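FW: tagging you since you asked about this chain on Friday. Here's the raw sequence from the shared folder, copied in full. Didn't touch anything.
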Amino acid sequence: MFSACMRDCYDTCSIMSEIKNGKLIVRGNPDHPITQGFLCPKGALLPRWFHSNERLKSPLVREGKRGDEDFKEVSWGEALTLIKEKLQETIKEYGSESILVYKYAGDRGIVNYYFPMRLFHYLNASTIDSGICDRAGQEALKDIYGTAVGMDPEKIKEHKLLVYWGINAFWTNLHGFMLAKKGNVEIWTVDVVRTETAKRSDKFFQIRPDTDVLFALGVAKVIIEEELYDKDFVTKNVYGFEEFKNYVTRLSLNYVSQETGIKPERIKEFAREFTEKRGIIHIGYGFQRSLAGGEAVRAVAILPVLVGHKFGFIYDMKTIDKSYAEGKFLRTKPENKIPQMELTKVIESDDIKFLYIYNSNPLASYPNQNRLRRALKKSDVFVVTHDIFLTDTALFSDVVLPANTFFERLDIVDSYYHRYVLLNEPVAKGPGKSNSEVTRLIAKSLGIRVPYLYESDEDVIRKVLEANGISFEELKRRGFIKVPEGPRNWKTPSGKIEFYSQRAVSRGLGPFPEYKKFKGKYPLRLLTPTHRMTITSQYHTTHGIIDPNLYMNPEDAKVRGIKDGDKVGVFNENGRVITKVKITEDVPKGVVILYKAFWPKLLGWNANFLTTDEKVEKYGKGSAFHSTWVEVNPYG
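HL: got it, structure written out here
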């Protein structure tokens, strides 16, 4: 059977699945050009996830305090009646906008992700304006290109050089990394940390936090001043080049070196070889989750243009229109969109009275956890969570509904990395219900008779595919279909690539990317990347691997009297955690690392008990997780 990994991951693998002797067996689809017949270490453990005895089997209703594991099992009928009554009461007393549906990409199946929104659009509920992941970079790329959709990654092999900028691809985009390796493409990495990708790269440029923008501008300065850029391409296709040229000419290369930690000769080396090899850049999501992130992506995005690429970056991919699945046409009032990074704020303000959560575990993945948990404990908001496991979010809920896995339902999925749509067929039956099943049940309990809320998964899939000119029958036969790339242009005010960004100026930003120094109340910059064996809070219960260690540079440890393996306290204005330290030169001086979003219910805390909930205001109110500062002291 054809399955598809629905995780929030670049690779979106095509999987061949079967049940043998009652056990799920999975392998990478050998015919899929990106999956290439193998699965990452996380994907190989999917059967353990599917067969987990920790899966929820019955609906639960909270009896104790929020956060306590004190629930009683109830029937689906009882749970649905309680949800119905609370929805009706909320609408009657507070209005439909006091209902908020909070979702994210824990499951990216098009039906599973979008179909529940039909009900909440019909109810005229408030929705989340996503900003927790890649929003600042999205806005920055739109400033330059009018779109955040980059090049087809299958074309990597046609190029000589791929730069991984702020992405640990060996952990988070393994299939893309192998595409480059198999194509004998030279790989460089630009990062603050000497990651596994950096160690496997042909060149590594280790910059200081927040200096991505300055390093990129320094490289652009060399390319322009040494006249290495593609003059014909730039003349025809770039808006504001002469102004940008004057802007970077005033920049001192020595200053760039002092701030970034990269010697002038290495900046020149990057510029000259990047131009000679007409490099392309995979722009990571991590570094744009900071107060400097939007400006940094704008600067980095300019470099491929200078060597003649129309879209010489990888960041996002939007291949098909999925709007039919979501059903915004069911609304009768304007949509009230709440910035995702203001979830805690709206709970504190008492504006939300009913919160429905699916495909997400915000009580592990959301920043400044202590604040969020305090808000939920004080609030009378009624919380419903639909999940496979009793997550931290479930523990803070009033009703918990058991979900199923993508091995148990029909769906399709696209990718934000490659151009394939994948089929996902049901392989087995387990406990729980899909998001679309639950949506139909809630709609029925409310007495709603709108046919769109009862459409079958297959009918939704067929109509989405039909709207995009894709044959469902062919998809069933092959398991995946590549969506062809049509003619592309730059959707900017000038119709060109804008070095002088009119869109940025309209938002109160400078016309060119600007370098700003940020300093916190504490001396150490905390970075919270994902662990190799997790995707944010996903997979935590699957493999039993938890890495709660704080990674610290030897010099920072020495001045604090800390030795490898010591127990330490890590703290700031948001909270304090106790853990052990691992000393490594992979982490630069002034920086510490905690891997993000392990489940607090198992660990007692996670990195998000420390992370900031500040927003990058002028870049779509994107998250700023990595603009967190802490201090570390010996403990005990």
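FW: The chain has three domains: 2-131+319-479, 150-315, 524-634.
HL: agreed, and The domain at 2-131+319-479 is CATH 3.40.50.740 (Rossmann fold).
FW: great, closing this out.
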